[in-house]
Amino acid sequence: MIGELAKPVMYLQGVGPKKSELYERMDVRTVYDLLYHFPRYYIDLNEPQTIRDAPLNEQVVLKGRVVRKLPEAPIRRGLSVYKAIFTDDTADLTIVIYNAGYLFKSLEVGHEYYLVGKLTGNLIRREINSPQIYPAASADPVQPVYRLTEGITQNLLRQNMHSAIEKLGGFIYEPLPPQILREYGLCSLHYAMQNIHFPTDMHTLELAKDRLVFDELLTLALGMLMMKSRSRENAGCVMKGESIDEYYDALPFELTKGQKNAINDCIADMQRDYPMNRLVQGDVGSGKTAVAAGAAFFAYKNGCQTALMAPTEILAAQHYETLNGFLEPLGVKVILLTGSMTAKKKEKVKEGIASGEYSVVVGTHALVQASTEFKKLGLVITDEQHRFGVEQRAMLAQKGDNPHKLVMSATPIPRTLALMIYGDLDISVLGELPKGRQPVETYAVTGKLRERAFGYLKQHLDEGRQGYIVCPMIEESAADLQDVKSYAKSLTEGVFKDYRVGLLHGRLAADKKEKVMKKFKAHELDILVSTTVVEVGVDVPNATVMLIENADRFGLSQLHQLRGRVGRGEHKSACILVTDNPTDEVVKRLKILSKSHDGFAISQEDLKLRGPGDFFGSRQHGLPKMKIADMSQNMDVLVKAQAAAKEILCQDPKLESPQNSGLKELVEQLFEQNVSND
Ligand code: ADP
Ligand code: MG
């Protein structure tokens, strides 16, 4: 049991009400929180450099003794500078300390110290300004450096951490069962905590990290697997084998093999006595919506309602149109429900949902709100799931009578990662694009050719087509937004002044976004200047050119998704990647897109070239936040943790045995924290 560790930090020696308030600002409330406040990095005092050889203007670690202290020199009122001469017998330097008289006083002539800081000056007169100073006799050999808040110093935090670790050792808290520790060669939690905070050398630090990373990934893997088995228990809305030939017959096209298989997978799943939990993974344009509609029609034939959630209002509106187009002729009533509707309208729609008037409901997050009641919700579909989270899936699953779940994603991810992210799902893959699709011709050019690229875009516009210009705005920050706005303005007033240009970005209010998008769809705009909000699923078949600025700032998979916005109609389409940073590596990367149109292959290339950081950097996967594990760095541990999780659950599926109680607590904690964060 966490027991003692759950006590407030105030419980530690030297932490009073004031300090504990400061700690709270860093999200540290309990002794447990403090222990899991890991250092940002470490300073290794084990191998100091010599003053003679230490480079200038870089952070260095030195070891030597104070030779002489110079008299205090007041610069002006309230500001003093203190200096001392320091040597390690290879050379001398001057320590310069501003104002911190107490620190200066603590230095003793003839004693040895470590100094950490930047050397300045020249090779004859070296100086080190406000270094960190550690007495050689008593310093821990590897110094942790923590994220701090005002009023909490590194020293104080280290002191408090020492007492926290003592407490931990006092009652030996160990969440992992002994046989797992043995099998995976892991150190004890007490050892790990001692050495993540106060390692004696880099080796003990590694051991500590391995253990803590393992804990975190194991907890995650357990949680994902348990979610999957939990949904196995409950009988969902069990359906009968109704035929959906009407649906197939009414479609204006022949479904691909992948689409047919995916629909059949869904139909089979929905006839079992536990809910479907399926992911349909398919490249952009592979036709996931037609799969969704097929599944929804099957639910309808069984007298059940379907809810489809999209990450944005634009997408929700579009899905509504598509589904309505497919299903209305078959007598299915489809309705749109979004957050930006007026309260009155929403109320009315909700009434219709509750009464069962509507069989298919398409919407944004508004759908997850507890206030929407369904008459008989049988199927929940979420689109582009990487924008949602595991916990949202779980939340919707609680609505109604344990509905079947279908998740659609265009993000091609390598298998190991998929196992972790979608550990709770079965997967159907749409392996091919519909017939007759022309690949989007892709060119990478430098900024020098920008004008020509604009000219090319104009040609298409003059033929009646439309185009996108995409600007990278990764964080959708205020500063970036300013850049995008002025860029759009320069286009509107300059090269595209004779065309109708619209601007779309993530900071626009939902109804404004909607308006711009509608205008673009209705061809009341020729060009849409947009940030990556256009990335997900937008479908305007008349748009045939996409120009992407600063393409080097995107991952290949993301570029591939972006370009999937064009090439959706009968006209030949093109994508122009512009970069002002044409290094060899960038050129090589962008060329991959000219050659390949296979999302999965592209993601593999991306993985090779940039590592899996792209999949995890942006938190788009919706997994709980990790404290120490980095799934892009710790792949080997990830694989082990998955194996361990399976082994543990095989013997104890609900973690009910006493030896697994610590693990159970960890799982609950990780997933709970994630729900409250969003
Ligand atoms: P995505 O998988 O990217 O969500 P969509 O479902 O938006 O793809 O489908 C892209 C386009 O392809 C739509 O216009 C859709 O009507 C069309 N489409 C889907 N399936 C087929 C098919 N089998 N044959 C021809 N066109 C199709
Ligand atoms: Mg789509």
Helix-strand layout with pairing:
Blueprint: H1 17-25, H2 31-35, E1 41-44, E2 59-69, E3 73-76, E4 79-87, E5 92-98, H3 101-106, E6 112-121, E7 126-129, E8 132-135, E9 142-145, H4 154-171, H5 178-183, H6 189-197, H7 202-233, H8 245-250, H9 257-269, E10 277-282, H10 288-301, E11 305-309, H11 313-327, E12 334-337, H12 343-355, E13 360-363, E14 377-383, H13 390-398, E15 404-409, H14 415-421, E16 426-430, E17 441-446, H15 450-462, E18 466-470, H16 478-493, E19 501-504, H17 510-521, E20 527-530, E21 543-548, H18 556-563, E22 574-579, H19 584-595, H20 599-610, H21 613-617, H22 635-651, H23 661-677
Parallel strand pairs: 5-7, 10-15, 10-16, 11-13, 11-14, 12-13, 14-15, 17-22, 18-20, 18-21, 19-20, 21-22
Antiparallel strand pairs: 1-9, 2-4, 2-6, 3-4, 4-5, 6-7, 6-8
For the biggest β-sheet, the strand order reads 12-13-11-14-15-10-16
Main beta sheet strand tally, sense and closure:
7 strands, parallel
Going by CATH, the architecture of the largest domain would be 3-Layer(aba) Sandwich
CATH superfamily of the largest domain: P-loop containing nucleotide triphosphate hydrolases
